[in-house]
Amino acid sequence: MSKISIAFVLLAASLVQAAQPMYGQCGGAGYTGDTTCVSGGVCTKVNDFYSQCLPGAAAPTTSTTTTTTTTSTSTTPTTTVTSVPVPSKTPIAGADPNTAAVVTAFNQYNVTTRFGLTFNPSAILGVRFSAQSQSFKAGQDVARNITLNTPELSLWGVQDPGLGPFVIVMADPDVPTPANPSYSPVRHWLAGNYYGTPTSNVLTPSGTAITPYFQPTPGVGSPAHRYTYLLYKQPDNFNQQRVVTSQTSIVNWNVTQFAAQTGLGNPIAGTFMMTVM
Ligand SMILES: *[C@@H]1O[C@H](CO)[C@@H](O)[C@H](O)[C@H]1NC(C)=O
Ligand SMILES: *[C@@H]1O[C@H](CO)[C@@H](O)[C@H](O)[C@H]1NC(C)=O
Ligand SMILES: *[C@@H]1O[C@H](CO)[C@@H](O)[C@H](O)[C@H]1NC(C)=O
């Protein structure tokens, strides 16, 4: 084999082995790209859908081509490490700027006591309907006509909430009216397996909801209902729980009891919107 073709083989080998940059994706369900990391990076599983190159002590895995280079006079191409932005997240547009503001709203509107919550959030929950450019603040009025479809969730960690999975709960404590909530709380949404990524606030669901989201339907003439969203860290065995299934009545659903029965603990984030018919 000529020197040129040897060099070509080496070049091709090293291109195939091009490593992912630090903080780049290196694995996960459906991922078809490179699974090796640049020198100093270790491919680390974040969740079933995302593995990422993180700084670590393991040796790089791209050194195998160097053993055959002694006979070749050509220079093997080296992988240049371009600078990669460190993942960062910013506060959620439109949502509360800090957890104190959320807690104040929950207390002012008696949401904390109504659900019997222990509410010391460590993160901000953003809830955005597709007709909205941004999330709402806790206690904000949201027009019913934009609430038809499942909203997008986002999470901003004041303390690091991790990347999930998380469980979302939405309930209405004011059915049929705030003054006479005899059917309350009504479960509007219950879904687990929401995951974050290191670079975006948006949470993405995997799998199907236990109770799919359904639109607020306060009675005509009723004062605004306090549609409340709570996010919990998901315990390991949550997908096996049978306390609430797709067959379970949505009325008179005690969220706090459910959280205790299924090991959800206390919510790590929450918000609520005021909606009338
Ligand atoms: C919250 O509860 C207090 C005390 O029961 C009451 O005075 C107040 O009107 C309630 N506020 C709302 C918004 O329900
Ligand atoms: C639910 O259960 C908790 C704890 O047992 C209690 O404090 C709360 O008042 C109950 N009611 C509702 C409406 O959640
Ligand atoms: C939704 O209702 C509000 C009033 O509650 C109105 O101002 C707005 O135009 C409506 N939007 C749509 C998309 O129908």
From TrEMBL:
Judging by the UniProt lineage, the source's domain of life is Eukaryota
Q: Which residues form the CBM1 domain?
A: 18-54
GO biological process terms, alphabetically, are: carbohydrate metabolic process; regulation of proteolysis; regulation of Ras protein signal transduction
Looking at the keywords, is Signal present? yes
Q: Which PROSITE patterns match?
A: CBM1_1 (PS00562), CBM1_2 (PS51164)
Q: Which SMART domains is this protein grouped with?
A: fCBD
First and last residue of the signal peptide: 1-18
InterPro entries noted in UniProt:
CBD, CBD_sf, PEBP, PEBP-like_sf, PEBP_euk
A GO term from the CC aspect? extracellular region
* UniProt GO molecular function: cellulose binding; peptidase inhibitor activity; phospholipid binding
> Which keywords annotate this record?
Signal
Q: What CDD domains has UniProt attached to this entry?
A: PEBP_euk (cd00866)
Q: Does the keyword Signal apply?
A: yes
A Pfam family that this protein carries is: PBP
**Protein name per the record:** Phosphatidylethanolamine-binding protein
Q: Could you tell me which species this protein originates from?
A: Ephemerocybe angulata
